[in-house]
Amino acid sequence: MSLEPVLDSHVLLRRKVELLAAQQQHLVRLLTLHARGEGPCCYHCGADGMDHEGAFYSPHGDCGIWTCGRCGLSQLRERPLEADVEALEDTNEIYPTDTDRAEDLVAEHGFMIDLVAQHVPEPGRMLEVGCSHGYKLEAARRRGWEVEGVELLPRACAFVREHFGIPVHQGTLDSFIPSGGFDAVVAWHVLEHVPSIQGFLGHVREFLNPGGFLFVQVPSFEVARKLEWDQHPDVFNALHYWFFTKASLGAVLQEQGFRTEQLHIDPHLPFLTAIATLS
Ligand SMILES: [Zn+2]
Questions:
Q1: Domain locations in the chain?
Q2: What b/e string do you get for 24-41 counting C-beta neighbours within 10 Å, with b at 16 or more?
Q3: Residue 34 CA, ligand 1 centroid: distance in Å
Q4: Which of 13, 198, 220, 271 has its CA 20 to 30 A from that of 264?
């Protein structure tokens, strides 16, 4: 089942241009506020009441985490540029390209499709943003989904195309024009990396079909903040711009036009999962 209506590509393109223009205006507003202000201001809402939570060591320099008094989002102040992120991540050994283990990894990622099926029972069209090596997408394809990926890293994109034959857009959502709407959008450990939460969720909102669902997982700041920050570079690193709690993730989803059906912290790992649909 593919939910109607399939989006018109001209409408999508026009909305994308409008979204990108809004992102630019938002960025200019933030830069202006930064230039005027004496202290840091929020990268999300622009408020200047920021509380310092602490800092952690990173090979790219010490990183401070600040929490906005208005929107409640915790965030890094110093951030690497997108080109540096691409170079850093593309050589990151936590994303191995392991052809021999590909079948096992596809099976391991089947949990994601079980989760999706609880909300979208009939296979339709699925997009995974930040699809890495495409194991979840391949697991979905084998269960009847029509799948597509978006991935920043060239090495991972090449693997998805060559090993699985799945279409993948190399880049970010800013430059992605889908061929139609999606019934499920998966963003697993992606939202903490995006420069603009408004921009990211705005793009998803545009191409999620009515009745479709967004599946998000991020590190949980409620859980992780109790850890020794310097001992957990998997959570506390220069590539994680945002640190979400249940309250702040729920708030940004609502603000961007989503209704959250589930929002829960993993009982075993410091992860926070949200399942949302268009409100
Ligand atoms: Zn804020």
A1: 9-278
A2: eebeeebeeeeeeeeebb
A3: 13
A4: 198
